[in-house]
Amino acid sequence: MLEAECQTTKQGEKSTRRSQPRNSGQANFTMNQPSQGHANFTMNQPSQEGYQKQGELNKEEVEKIRGLLGSLEKPSGACSLALSEDLEHDAVHDDAKATEKDAALHLALSRLSNEFGRESTLSLQRFFGVRHVPVIPTGSLKLDIALGIGGLPKGRFVEIYGQEASGKSTLALHIIKEAQKLGGFCAYFDVENAMDPSLVESMGVDTENLLISRPDSAENLLSAVDTLTKCGSIDVIVVDSVAALLPQCEIDVPVGGILRDAQSRIMSQALCKIHYSLRNSQTLIVLVNQVRSSSKSRQGNKDMGEDTCGGNALKFYSAVRLKLGKRELLKNENEVTGLGISVQVVKNKLAPAMKKAELGLRFGRGFCCESEVLELACEQGIIVKEGNGYLVEGKFFGNRHEAELHLAENEVVFDKMVSILRRLLFETEESIVVHE
């Protein structure tokens, strides 16, 4: 009996302890019934007595909690890597190492200079200094503005291409005319045998001081161009045109003989050689080219059915590529007197490309430069426009035709206007510079 009562008493105490909440300094979590699919957790606050016993009785549990809290503060995985990279700093600049590298560089340059000569070695002052780009005007102020540097750069290749009768040869002759105005000496290779001296003189070109040649093969012509470029005395060389260049191997083969890409191979080899000659020369080489229908399609080319002659070498070596196209006919009453053309700067290594200029071309006279000068002078305030009339240096002209005729007949007034416009349009802006 006594043992049974003791056991009953112990079981009652255990059940009482289980029914009482624990209050040993730890938070008690109870889960209520979920509402709307979510479980609700509530935390019972421990009593003050429990806090006092925590340091004495539950040290291991306290350390576990501290470890858990520490792991929450430290990022893991990719986050920790990203934060560590953000905390990295650049290496401290070492003056001793920089001095050592500079000394090694100068030693290498001196060895190259002794072994290969001064012209083939690197020079920080020569190759990393900047210089102004010398240019030759095109004869059209609108085109010079589209080019961005006031003309075509000296010492470079320039390609002019387009459809037939679009003003390609006329533009080349205007470039020669402007170079002669600056006192330059020019050469014209008439490969197409289409040059009319009287027409060239009517455009203002001085044919007495112009070298004209008609070589009998592509090899002879390109060799002559290389020789004239090396001499350094020629300012402009015009080849009209690349499409008419005939290699000697094609001359020797009967009509109908199969020779593939002979012209392209010769152009690639010759341009590479002439390119090295241009480094020490200020000669502008203008190559007039034609277009052909092509089945090849190149990405980014809007005219998928057209391609230039002579292969792809000229496209790469050219610093400027100009594409000419016809717009509309210019008429005086019922008579056709000229042609409106558009010039697009397809490639430009010295300024932003893809600019356009719309020009007027008068048969037998060349570009309508007077019209451009009159329009630009009105925009700059040099010539005052009053209604339909124009006030030019104190003289009033009732309409546009009379004002243009005055500029065409008075070369001194025209050159003065062009000089003022070039100074306002190009010299006031920052000069284009390139790394030499």
From TrEMBL:
Which stretches make up the RecA family profile domain?
132-291, 306-372
GO BP terms, alphabetized: DNA recombination; DNA repair
Protein origin, superkingdom: Eukaryota
According to the UniProt entry, the coiled-coil residues are none
One matching Pfam family, short form? RecA_N
The biased composition feature labelled Polar residues covers 1-10, 21-51
List the top taxonomic levels of the source: Eukaryota, Viridiplantae, Streptophyta, Embryophyta, Tracheophyta
Q: Where is the signal peptide?
A: none
Enumerate the SUPFAM superfamilies for this protein: P-loop containing nucleoside triphosphate hydrolases
- Show the PROSITE patterns listed in the entry: RECA_1, RECA_2, RECA_3
Family according to the record: Belongs to the RecA family.
What name goes with this protein?
DNA repair protein recA-2-like protein
Q: Where is this region: Disordered?
A: 1-55
**Record keywords, A-Z:** ATP-binding, DNA recombination, DNA-binding, Nucleotide-binding
UniProt GO MF annotations: ATP binding; ATP-dependent DNA damage sensor activity; single-stranded DNA binding
